[in-house]
Amino acid sequence: MARNKEKKRKYDRLYSKKNRVRKRKNQRKWRKANRDKLRLYNRTAYLKRKHSEKRKKQVRKASKKWRQTYPDKNIIRSHRYRARKKKNGGEFTHKQLKSLGNKCMCCGLGRRALTRLRRSLSVDHVIPIAHGGRNNINNLQLLCFGKNGCHNFKGTKHTDYRKRRKDVQANTRRVA
After folding, report:
1. Would you say the pTM of this structure is higher than 0.85?
2. How far is CA 33 from CA 39, 110, 143, in A?
3. N-to-C CA span, the chain
4. Per-residue pLDDT tens over the stretch 79-114
């Protein structure tokens, strides 16, 4: 058996030397015809080499820690990714997000009141990214999210609570 392997190896080397040009042409032709397969193969091979199971666990742990430490920045990152994917454009910074305040623009509850109700503030697009809305600060509003939250009742409507909130605040100032 070992003898046959050696013979086969020797034969393959000689064949490769004699038919180098033909072999390269065939490889190029196959690569052109199977670009997706080749890309997938190379990607999986790269990931196998690059990320062993131990490394994958470390990366997941570090990513989870970062997402928990910087929830607002994670929101910005995910919105930016979705907008890029839809090719809608626009982006906003952490500072701009903070400038929107700490209250729901629909019901006016602050973060403390929302945590007691087991709700949280979520960034909402007035015109959703899926419907062609841009991912900039002019298209954002903060709404409470959770059981009976304002974000849940919005549905598919393009409701701009920012204007409504300003009108309500203006009316309460006039009355007082």
Report:
1. no
2. 12, 58, 50
3. 99
4. 888 888 888 888 888 888 788 888 888 888 888 888
CA distance 141 to 83: 16
Q: Are 142 and 160 in contact (CB under 8 A)?
A: no
What is the separation of C-alpha 118 from the centre of its chain, rounded to a whole number of angstroms? 25
CA gap 160, 167 in Å, rounded: 12
| Domain range summary for the chain, segments of one domain joined by + | 64-175
DSSP secondary structure, the chain, as one string: -HHHHHHHHHHHHHHHHHTHHHHHHHHHHHHHHTHHHHHHHHHHHHHHHH--HHHHHHHHHHHHHHHHH-HHHHHHHHHHHHHHHHT------HHHHHHT-SB-TTT--BHHHHHHTT-EEEEEESS-GGGT---SGGGEEEEEESTT-HHHHHTTS---HHHHHHHHHHHHHHH-
Q: Which residues pair with 103 in a beta bridge?
A: 110
CB-side neighbour CA atoms (13 Å) of 21: 0
